[in-house]
Amino acid sequence: MQDPGNIGAITRVAEAGGASCVIAAGASADPFGWKALRGSMGSALRLPIVSAEERVSRGRPRTQHGCEVIAAVPSGGYRFSSSG
To answer: pLDDT tens digits, residue range 45-58?
Structure first.
């Protein structure tokens, strides 16, 4: 996500949808920049946001702990399946 307003909007929608956190991975815009905070309309202050420099691991630990990962990626990105 390169546009700070979009990462803010995703944070806002994630909170509305009941997400437990947002992970901004890879070459993402700063989720704590002023445009992202404005776009989140306060959701960034209530929902934990993790900024990761590397892509999220595709291992089984996420399913072993009952986590569901939902990701937005540009075309050509990685697709995760629920079977791990």
So the answer is: 999 888 775 445 55
